[in-house]
Amino acid sequence: MNLTVVSVGKLKEKYLKLAIDEYSKRLSRYCKLDIIELPDEKTPDNASKKEELAIKEKEGQNILKHIKDNSYVIALDLKGEMISSEKLASYIKDLGVRGNSNIVFVIGGSLGISESVIKRADYKLCFSKMTFPHQLFRVMLLEQIYRAYRINNNEPYHK
């Protein structure tokens, strides 16, 4: 299975980079993982709603450039479905069984994901109603994907 994480925002913190590297290494046993890091657009301090929408749309167009037509897209969105780790594992497994071998997870920037990306998404997933920094969220996503593979292979890790 080919997994791609498309994420808006540069990862600067060394400890987050180390965590990403660790989960990428662990996942290499189970899938091919690509991480595409896209620049975020600068948002002025007192940006209007119209300016924010324009920024999200610009980021969205950049995201869409990195999504192939045959990809199954999972957008990480506050309005998405909240599921358990076990259900995520089952979902990923079912995608593979149904022939969806190219899965793209999309993490938006600080303003969220554009409507054009939401429309392209095949599934919208929400980890929590809380807001997380997108850099930290990348680690959280990879950890959950790793957990999903461990669950699907009946391997110890999940508690």
UniProtKB/TrEMBL annotation:
GO terms for molecular function: rRNA (pseudouridine-N3-)-methyltransferase activity. It holds the Pfam family SPOUT_MTase. Signal peptide: none annotated. It is found in: Cytoplasm. It comes from the Bacteria. S-adenosyl-L-methionine binds at residues 76, 108, 127-132. It catalyses: pseudouridine(1915) in 23S rRNA + S-adenosyl-L-methionine = N(3)-methylpseudouridine(1915) in 23S rRNA + S-adenosyl-L-homocysteine + H(+). The keyword Methyltransferase applies. Its EC number is 2.1.1.177. Keywords: Cytoplasm, Methyltransferase, rRNA processing, S-adenosyl-L-methionine, Transferase. SUPFAM superfamilies: alpha/beta knot. Belongs to the RNA methyltransferase RlmH family. Specifically methylates the pseudouridine at position 1915 (m3Psi1915) in 23S rRNA. Homodimer. This is Ribosomal RNA large subunit methyltransferase H. It comes from Clostridium senegalense. The lineage of its organism: Bacteria, Bacillati, Bacillota, Clostridia, Eubacteriales.
